[in-house]
Design goal:
By secondary structure, this protein is of the alpha/beta class. The chain has one domain (4-89, 143-287). 49% of the residues lie in helices and 11% in strands. The strands form 2 sheets. A 6-stranded mixed sheet has the order 6-4-7-2-1-8, with helices on both faces. Strands 3-5 form a two-stranded antiparallel sheet. A hairpin with a 4-residue loop joins strand 1 and strand 2 (35-41).
């Protein structure tokens, strides 16, 4: 569930054309005595194209610490499940159908049926949870392996290497940004998800190409445009979190040890992205080849 929460970044859609030579966006930011590498992630990778890019691995090798959105090295799955039980259910006496309407519920039921999921299992879940579950199932269907995601692979290496891991936020903060959406915005999120389920993978080739070459301006255009039209979602999930993360990244830059910071690609690019915020504060991110 911790990985699935970044569903809007899974829409990067690395389906058929991600290769072992793909270059994930990685920028080096120089502190007075160290380097912080800032890498964009797509969180999940296709099973048959899961090799991490060479530039990302060089940054990892040159770092003493791996920092992620949440610390997957210490993530307690039971804690996440308990949090979802406490925050992802509809109020007693309320159903998904009564919350989203019969027509929309029919679309949800059809989508769930396509994945072999009995629609009634969703009846007591909030719309934002249903959106995540449907997206999760879609990416599993398309051949993505949760165990082969960018962060998951790096965490496994860090454990093997005895390298420290850390997180920029807690599970409560990350999941709470979705649970805190108003009900109309949750329904809008669900509508957006249902629409995206109908999009053919081929339409996302431009995003794949931009990610492979680390084309930040193009990524900003392709990834952020739709969500900027939905500020109630974009603001808490992207820009507000970036502002909370920035002081932590700058604190790393004030230290002596090199660190690799890995966040969703959408957090790096565009107005309010971490690269822009770091430049405003006088740093000069340099993209790795």
């Amino acid at each position: 569930m911790g990985r699935a929460i970044q569903w809007w970044l899974l829409a990067v859609g690395l389906f058929s054309c991600l290769t072992a030579q793909a270059a994930s966006p990685v920028w080096a930011i120089r502190g007075a005595h160290n380097t912080v590498y800032l890498a964009g992630s797509v969180h999940l990778l296709p099973t048959d194209h899961a090799t991490l890019p060479a530039g990302l691995m060089r940054a990892y090798a040159d770092s003493t610490r791996l920092v992620m959105e949440i610390d997957l090295g210490k993530l307690d799955q039971e804690q996440v499940a308990d949090w979802m039980l406490g925050h992802g259910k509809l109020p007693a006496g309320t159903t998904l159908s009564s919350t989203i309407g019969a027509e929309r519920y029919a679309r949800v039921s059809h989508a769930a049926g396509d994945f072999g999921l009995p629609p009634q299992t969703l009846d007591d879940q909030a719309p934002w949870v249903v959106a995540i579950e449907l997206t999760d199932l879609e990416y599993l269907k398309l051949g993505f392996d949760p165990e082969q995601g960018v962060e998951e692979q790096l965490v496994q290496r860090a454990r093997s290497d005895g390298k420290a891991t850390a997180g920029l936020e807690t599970v409560d903060a990350e999941l709470g940004s979705l649970a805190g959406l108003s009900q109309p915005d949750q329904v809008r999120l669900l509508d957006q998800t249902l629409q995206e389920l109908d999009d053919p993978p081929s339409e996302l080739n431009d995003i794949v190409s931009a990610w492979r070459r680390g084309d930040a301006p193009q990524l900003a255009t392709l990834l952020a445009g739709e969500y900027r039209e939905f500020p109630a979602l974009y603001r808490p999930l992207v820009t507000e979190r970036n502002r909370l993360w920035l002081p932590q990244i700058e604190q790393l830059l004030a230290g002596n040890d090199n660190s690799l910071v890995v966040v969703g690609a959408l957090h790096l690019v565009g107005d309010g992205g971490l690269l822009e915020l770091l430049r405003r504060d006088g740093f000069k991110p340099e993209q790795l080849n």
